[in-house]
UniProtKB/TrEMBL annotation:
<keyword id="KW-0597">Phosphoprotein</keyword>
<dbReference type="InterPro" id="IPR003607">
    <property type="entry name" value="HD/PDEase_dom"/>
</dbReference>
<dbReference type="InterPro" id="IPR001789">
    <property type="entry name" value="Sig_transdc_resp-reg_receiver"/>
</dbReference>
<dbReference type="GO" id="GO:0000160">
    <property type="term" value="P:phosphorelay signal transduction system"/>
</dbReference>
<feature type="domain" description="Response regulatory">
    <location>
        <begin position="2"/>
        <end position="120"/>
    </location>
</feature>
<dbReference type="InterPro" id="IPR052020">
    <property type="entry name" value="Cyclic_di-GMP/3'3'-cGAMP_PDE"/>
</dbReference>
<dbReference type="InterPro" id="IPR011006">
    <property type="entry name" value="CheY-like_superfamily"/>
</dbReference>
<dbReference type="GO" id="GO:0009214">
    <property type="term" value="P:cyclic nucleotide catabolic process"/>
</dbReference>
<feature type="modified residue" description="4-aspartylphosphate">
    <location>
        <position position="53"/>
    </location>
</feature>
<dbReference type="Pfam" id="PF13487">
    <property type="entry name" value="HD_5"/>
</dbReference>
<dbReference type="GO" id="GO:0004112">
    <property type="term" value="F:cyclic-nucleotide phosphodiesterase activity"/>
</dbReference>
<protein>
    <submittedName>
        <fullName>Metal-dependent phosphohydrolase, HD subdomain</fullName>
    </submittedName>
</protein>
<feature type="domain" description="HD-GYP">
    <location>
        <begin position="147"/>
        <end position="344"/>
    </location>
</feature>
<dbReference type="Pfam" id="PF00072">
    <property type="entry name" value="Response_reg"/>
</dbReference>
<dbReference type="InterPro" id="IPR037522">
    <property type="entry name" value="HD_GYP_dom"/>
</dbReference>
<keyword id="KW-0378">Hydrolase</keyword>
């Protein structure tokens, strides 16, 4: 505990120091005949209790309190003003500026001891409460982070479960997640939302858990009836993920239900068009289709990057939102870097020009 005593009279400083020392000989006491020097030290290390005279040269007690209360961390420090002034205005102004208590000159040592004892006890209680609140806040942060970590783990496990049934690879999920975040950033979305999109994007096809293997793994073209079954997976994915209180899983549900919608309204499951498609769905549509085109599947070879790029350009305004494609293509070097970093194992005849 640190006590500042501010008084231009050296005799008063010595007397007040002795009284405070008798209250608690473990506190540190700093005496200042110059109030400006006291303010400088207070800005370096905040006091726990301040005893300040009202009548001082340079700046008076009012100005001292005004400047001190403006410092960070000074709002709860007890301040006792010592004054001989009987003027009611002096005390009223001092209270308005944040003075905690008063002592009247000549100071009664017994009264001063009691007031200092009470105010030091009040300060200790405040510091203990502040430390406890900080500890509780840290515990809340840790608990919240643990919940977020479990949510992310759940997402990863759901995505892996879908991978075991789907010919898509884990590398596809990594690539399209990075592509999605890249587009989101290029569109100027808040950093927090960009990171949520990155984490939620792997859930886009979780509904394929409900698609029969004979359709999901069919090496040839699907019949109309089979395609109708396949097109149910966004609704299934939304049903799996909807209803959560988690913002991340809510976003995953939104992506699951909208990533097959097309900008011109010919997509599924609802035929949404333009900006009626949530921006997350518009973003993931570009990332998912591009990576699907450039990846091998049981029913096709991988396209080369330039052919897939041309496909995006040809389908701007039809399948894809123009802004999402524009941002994607403007970051082509980063796209190539992501593609290389999360490349699939190369097999013979895997790429088709």
């Amino acid at each position: 505990m640190l006590v500042h005593i501010v008084d231009d009279n050296n005799t008063n400083l010595m007397l007040f120091e002795q009284i405070v020392r008798r209250v608690d000989n473990e506190v540190s006491i700093a005496c200042y005949p110059d109030p400006l020097a006291a303010l400088v030290d207070c800005s370096r290390q905040m006091a726990d209790l301040v005893l300040v005279d009202y009548m001082m040269p340079g700046i008076d007690g009012h100005e001292y309190v005004r400047r001190m209360r403006a410092m960070p961390g000074a709002g709860d420090v007890p301040i006792v003003m010592i004054t001989a002034a009987a003027d009611r205005f002096v005390r009223q102004t001092a209270l308005e500026l944040g003075v905690t208590d008063f002592l009247t000159k000549p100071v009664d040592p017994s009264e001063m001891r009691v007031r200092v004892t009470n105010l030091l006890a009040l300060r200790r209680s405040h510091l203990r409460l502040r430390d406890r609140n900080r500890w509780l806040a840290e515990e809340v942060r840790n608990a919240t982070q643990a919940v977020l970590d479990r949510e992310e783990e759940l997402i990863v496990r759901l995505a892996k479960a879908a991978e075991y049934r789907d010919p898509e690879t884990g590398s596809h999920i990594h690539r399209m997640s990075h592509y999605s975040r890249l587009i989101a950033r290029g569109l100027g979305l808040p950093d927090e939302l960009c990171d949520l999109i990155f984490k939620a994007a792997p859930m886009h096809d979780v509904g394929k858990l409900g698609t029969p293997d004979d359709i999901l793994l069919k090496p040839g073209r699907l019949t109309d009836d089979e395609m109708e079954v396949m097109r149910r997976h966004p609704v299934i994915g939304h049903a799996i993920l909807s209803g959560s209180s988690s913002q991340l899983i809510q976003l995953g549900a939104e992506i699951a239900i909208t990533h097959h919608e097309k900008f011109d309204g010919t997509g599924y499951p609802y035929g949404l068009a333009g900006e009626k498609i949530p921006i997350t769905g518009r973003i993931v549509a570009v990332a998912d289709v591009f990576d699907a085109l450039t990846s091998r599947r049981p029913y096709k070879l991988a396209w080369d990057m330039e052919r897939a790029r041309a496909y995006l350009i040809e389908n701007v305004g039809h399948h894809f939102a123009p802004q999402s494609v524009e941002v994607f293509l403007s970051a082509w070097d980063e796209i190539l870097e992501i593609r290389q970093r999360f490349a699939d194992p190369v097999e013979p005849e895997q790429t088709m020009g």
